[in-house]
RNA sequence: GGGCUCAUAGCUCAAUGGUAGAGCAUCGGACUCUUAAUCCGCAGGUUCCAGGUUCGAGUCCUGGUGGGCCCA
């Protein structure tokens, strides 16, 4: 075999290079002996968890009389060689299980050419019988052992694991098999999504998929990603919300409809924001916003119960209970209580301005300060109220001014029949009676266009086709959106959205690019 | 975008401005029930990058890159 060329970027004596070099040598040696290093067609009969269940509580003597054979496979996470015998611990998607290998049982060839050459991280395949070790650990006494797939890279510290958040996020494939809590978070995420779908299916809702590429981005107040369609030679926007399309479907007669899918917002990245995130939106004709609050309590109660087994959920320093009715708190009252402003002051932009400047003297000449009640509500709420809403709380009666898609209250036209749900200081949901008056909607869009022209680049665009849809008549409808990533954060105890998004947005990794260019090329090294 | 902070071996971490170390992993050896196996031995470094200060920089300074937390 000719000497392998040292890849560019790996200086003489570089640890990483030599590590992989050694493993590649083993791989070449196995190939030379005619042993497959990436075989296909291997079958298993049991998972690690199933083998453990088979063993049950039986003692060593009982297992000795059981001739059941199991075939299992997994990644080698632990290897302990003791001369002519050894232990291995393999991990599959359901857990870990120990293997016991003796030279006498597997034969010299397998022992020397397979077992001794196995490296941590390799995928192994084994056949054997059930056993308990002397210390009582459920194990498989191996009669046949094969390499199922070679691992060339080196694994993180087997005891300390992998803690660097950057490495975990950039190399999720390693994080997932090294850190059980990471894996568990994504298993739970899957259960959350399933439980949400089950909830709506059971209530006769219809799941749909509406455009992610939209000619006019709508349905939320946010900056969109823009792209270009070459063949049509037109700009397209990644959706910031599916809302306007879902309501078109209600016009079309889909009276109970939901979508659970990705939205994209071209905004900052933080522990609570990822540029792409998963949103549930649902709409029901002839339901009201109050019905939606009831439904939200039922939904979150059911999802939390199914995913966590019930009871309060530990989150940050809090214990959050989804199991009972949520507080419903009028926005003006919440602001009044948390700021100490009177009910009259909370209706007066000048009074709110004075209060704000008292707390933020540097803003005295800030030209961006709000001038209207609605905008002041946003500012005061974000600053003084939101962080205090720990237990699930519906904030109700939003200003119509900042709710361009919501129906106004007939009794109080300046107020929208709209609520938002807050948990652990985070906005989790947003629901309202849908504005189905096309003339009012047109006026609201025009107000948004004016705001945009005035420099508000988050203001909504005018969507003429949506107005046309409403002109055909949308039945009285209520709709709501719930942020799934944040819900998963709450139900997994993670305070960063990056811990519940498999591949979160990160800046390009220069080091990683260099690594990729310099990587050894296992496929071209055989000589 | 701003503030604070971090970046040293594959991983987890040490190192008063004065010879870059440890544990695990890896490599060689011993061991037929180990549990972070044990024992013996070896090897592994562009201290994130580019400048600067200094007799001397992993350490101090400036700029950059990437991450984390907080704020916007």
Helical stretch count? 17
Radius of gyration over alpha carbons? 30 Å
Shape: elongated
- Main sheet: which strands, in order across? 6-10-11-18-17-16-15-14
- Helical fraction equals 25-40%
> Helices and strands: which structural class?
alpha+beta
Whole-Å distance between the termini?
A: 5 Å
Percent of residues in β-strands: 15-25%
User: Low-confidence runs (pLDDT<50, min 5 residues)?
Assistant: 1-15, 511-527
Task: Briefly say what this structure is.
This protein is α+β, with helices and mostly antiparallel strands.
Structure commentary:
By secondary structure, this protein is of the alpha+beta class. It has 17 helices and 18 strands. It has helices at 15-32, 48-55, 60-65, 103-106, 108-115, 165-170, 172-178, 180-202, 243-251, 289-308, 331-339, 349-359, 373-385, 438-453, 464-471, 484-492, 510-518, and strands at residues 69-82, 85-92, 95-102, 123-132, 138-149, 206-207, 213-214, 226-229, 234-238, 256-264, 276-285, 313-315, 318-320, 327-330, 393-396, 418-423, 426-433, 477-483. It binds one RNA strand of 72 nucleotides through helix 1, strand 1, strand 2, strand 3 and helix 6.
Task: Describe how the helices and strands are arranged.
Blueprint: H1 15-32, H2 48-55, H3 60-65, E1 69-82, E2 85-92, E3 95-102, H4 103-106, H5 108-115, E4 123-132, E5 138-149, H6 165-170, H7 172-178, H8 180-202, E6 206-207, E7 213-214, E8 226-229, E9 234-238, H9 243-251, E10 256-264, E11 276-285, H10 289-308, E12 313-315, E13 318-320, E14 327-330, H11 331-339, H12 349-359, H13 373-385, E15 393-396, E16 418-423, E17 426-433, H14 438-453, H15 464-471, E18 477-483, H16 484-492, H17 510-518
Parallel strand pairs: 3-5, 6-10, 14-15
Antiparallel strand pairs: 1-2, 1-4, 2-3, 4-5, 7-9, 8-9, 10-11, 11-18, 12-13, 15-16, 16-17, 17-18
Helix pairs in contact: 7-8, 8-10, 8-16, 11-13, 14-15
This protein binds one RNA strand of 72 nucleotides through residues 11, 13-16, 18-20, 22-23, 78, 80-87, 89, 98, 100-104, 119-120, 131, 133-135, 137, 139, 153-167, 169-170, 178, 268, 270-271, 496, 506-511.
């Amino acid at each position: 075999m000719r000497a392998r060329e040292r890849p560019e970027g790996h200086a003489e004596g570089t640890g990483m290079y030599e590590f992989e070099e050694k493993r590649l040598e083993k791989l070449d040696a196995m190939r030379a002996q005619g042993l497959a290093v990436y075989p296909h067609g291997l079958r298993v009969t049991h998972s690690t968890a199933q083998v453990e269940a088979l063993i049950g509580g039986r003692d060593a003597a009982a297992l000795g009389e059981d001739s059941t054979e199991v075939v299992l496979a997994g990644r080698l996470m632990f290897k302990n060689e003791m001369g002519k015998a050894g232990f291995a611990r393999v991990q599959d998607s359901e857990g870990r299980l120990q293997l016991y290998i003796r030279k006498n049982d597997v034969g010299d060839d397998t022992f020397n050419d397979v077992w001794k050459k196995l490296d941590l991280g390799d995928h192994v395949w084994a056949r054997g019988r059930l056993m308990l070790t002397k210390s009582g650990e459920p194990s498989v006494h191996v009669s046949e052992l094969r390499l199922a797939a070679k691992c060339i890279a080196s694994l993180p510290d087997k005891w300390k694991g992998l803690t660097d958040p950057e490495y975990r996020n950039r190399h999720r494939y390693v994080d997932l098999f090294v850190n059980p809590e990471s894996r568990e978070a994504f298993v739970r995420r899957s259960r959350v999504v399933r439980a949400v779908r089950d909830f709506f299916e059971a209530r006769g809702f219809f799941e749909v998929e509406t455009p992610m590429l939209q000619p006019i981005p709508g349905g939320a107040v946010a900056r969109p990603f823009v792209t270009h369609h070459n063949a049509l030679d037109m700009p397209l926007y990644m959706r910031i919300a599916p809302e306007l399309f879902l309501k078109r479907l209600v016009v079309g007669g889909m009276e109970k409809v939901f979508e659970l899918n990705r939205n994209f917002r071209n905004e900052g990245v933080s522990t609570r924001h990822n540029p792409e995130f998963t949103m549930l939106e649902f709409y029901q004709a002839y339901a009201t916003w109050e019905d939606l609050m009831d439904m939200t309590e039922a939904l979150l109660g059911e999802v939390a119960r199914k995913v966590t087994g019930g009871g309060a959920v530990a989150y940050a320093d809090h214990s959050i209970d989804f199991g009972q009715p949520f507080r419903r708190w009028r926005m003006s009252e919440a602001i009044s209580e948390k700021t100490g402003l009177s009910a009259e002051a909370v209706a007066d932009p000048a009074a709110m301005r004075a209060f704000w400047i008292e707390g933020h003297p540097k803003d005295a000449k800030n030209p961006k300060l709000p001038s209207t009640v609605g905008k002041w509500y946003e500012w005061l709420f974000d600053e003084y109220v939101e962080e205090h809403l720990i237990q699930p709380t519906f904030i109700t009666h939003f200003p119509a001014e900042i709710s361009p898609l919501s129906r106004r209250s007939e009794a109080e036209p300046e107020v929208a029949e709209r609520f938002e749900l807050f948990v652990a200081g985070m906005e989790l949901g947003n629901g309202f009676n849908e504005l189905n008056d096309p003339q009012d909607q047109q006026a609201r869009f025009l107000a948004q266009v004016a705001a945009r022209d005035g420099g508000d680049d988050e203001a909504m665009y005018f969507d003429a086709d949506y107005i046309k849809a409403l002109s055909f008549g949308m039945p009285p409808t209520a709709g709501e959106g719930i942020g799934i990533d944040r819900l998963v954060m709450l139900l997994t105890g993670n305070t960063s959205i990056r811990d519940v998004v498999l591949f979160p947005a990160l800046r390009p990794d220069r080091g990683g690019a260099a690594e990729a260019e310099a990587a050894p090329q296992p496929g071209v090294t055989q000589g």
